């Protein structure tokens, strides 16, 4: 099992959460909520209003999201879903645990208790330069006050 931190449309209550609970795509078990230890710019960009975490450490906000434990099948699905490695790149980042529900081995419990763990995150280094000038968010909600509702793939 691998740990994945999601900050956008795959979170609970967001437009693509259905994929996280579709066991035909693999297993994803909610472990808790967290935020990036380093600051990153989280922008909503493109004609479909997609949330992107730009891989520019030290700029932006501590981005909030959810921590999942996923099996190899789900990780492979997520790589394909996120257009990895072209659109997003899956990298390890340090995530501060804000709230922990996970039930795992002693190592996982210790990491959660210490407050920081490494998780895979889909961020991007392949973006148009003008995205750096977009507003930065500390958390994402498709129906947030930014007014940039995400457009589902099936509606494009």
Automatic annotation (TrEMBL):
Residues annotated as the enzyme's active site: 82
EC annotation from Swiss-Prot or TrEMBL: 4.3.2.8
Known catalytic reactions: epsilon-(gamma-L-glutamyl)-L-lysine = 5-oxo-L-proline + L-lysine
Keyword Transit peptide carried by entry: no
InterPro entries assigned: AIG2-like_dom, GGACT, GGCT-like, GGCT-like_sf
Listed transmembrane segments: none
Residue ranges of every copy of the Gamma-glutamylcyclotransferase AIG2-like domain listed in the record: 4-105
Keywords: Lyase, Transferase
EC class (word): lyase
Family matches, as PANTHER family: GAMMA-GLUTAMYLAMINECYCLOTRANSFERASE, TROPONIN C-AKIN-1 PROTEIN
Protein name in UniProt: Gamma-glutamylaminecyclotransferase
Organism: Corythaixoides concolor (Grey go-away-bird)
Organism taxonomic ancestry: Eukaryota, Metazoa, Chordata, Craniata, Vertebrata
């Amino acid at each position: 099992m691998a740990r994945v931190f999601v900050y956008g449309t795959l979170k609970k209550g967001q437009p693509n959460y259905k994929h996280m609970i579709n066991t035909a795509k693999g297993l994803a078990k909610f472990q808790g909520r967290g935020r990036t230890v380093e600051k990153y710019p989280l922008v909503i960009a493109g004609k479909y209003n997609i949330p992107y975490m730009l891989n520019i450490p030290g700029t932006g906000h501590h981005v909030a999201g959810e921590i999942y434990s996923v099996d190899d099948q789900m990780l492979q699905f997520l790589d394909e879903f996120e257009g990895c490695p072209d659109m997003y790149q899956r990298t390890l980042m340090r995530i501060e645990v804000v709230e922990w529900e996970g039930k795992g081995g002693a190592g996982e419990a210790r990491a959660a208790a210490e407050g920081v763990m490494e998780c895979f995150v889909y961020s991007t280094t392949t973006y148009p330069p003008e995205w750096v000038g977009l507003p930065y968010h500390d958390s994402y909600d498709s129906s947030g006050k930014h007014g940039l509702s995400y457009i589902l793939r099936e509606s494009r």
